[in-house]
């Protein structure tokens, strides 16, 4: 399907050569074809550059720049500067899209003008030969996947981030209004969600599992301090004060 607004997919890449082929192929397989990839190769030292160059030659919808390693927030904001679409979507370089992901999310936004950002249900997967998925990861997945209505999402904002980051799909006006991603001592996706809600954006979630999230013990969200519990508590306290929920 080519009709509909252009979707700009923001994706930082850092030493993800082993996963890029499957990730990008899943996007090329989308039933919705009016999209562009806006990619920042964030100082990769593996073969990521050559993988991206190969795919750029195959599909002109893929745009990328290379930079010294700077981290996920500067990379996402740099990727956003490449965006030409009126819709912004997120993707991680080791994840996989369902063929209907963009079609379903763009259709939802088109049919629900009051919604500013929509996610989707998701499913974790791993290389079973290397490691299994811990029960607490699956517990969080099940918790997030139960939160479908806007009320459920809004009411659980201060539990954990109720929408998985690689499933984000939003109107660009929301992204611009918030000034993109911010560098903080806590997770950039949780910060974005809390700021979006504070700015009046209605949040929603598609009921289908439209993204497969790769689980690995070395994944950024597993090892960086900004994604761990103390940082999440700091984010909650900060925004509860801003919302006027704490004195």
Polypeptide structure, described:
With 247 residues, the protein is α/β, with parallel strands linked by helices. It is 39% helix and 22% strand. The protein has ten helices and eight strands. An eight-stranded mixed beta sheet has the order 3-2-1-4-7-6-8-5, with helices on both faces. Helix 1 (17-28) packs parallel to helix 2 (48-58). The longest helix has 14 residues, at 229-242. It is globular and about 55 Å long. The model has no long low-confidence stretch (mean pLDDT 94).
Could you give a short description of this structure?
This protein has 247 residues and is of the alpha/beta class. It is 39% helix and 22% strand. It has helices spanning 17-28, 48-58, 72-80, 101-111, 135-146, 150-155, 172-177, 188-198, 220-223, 229-242; strands spanning 7-13, 35-42, 62-67, 87-90, 96-97, 115-125, 169-171, 202-214.
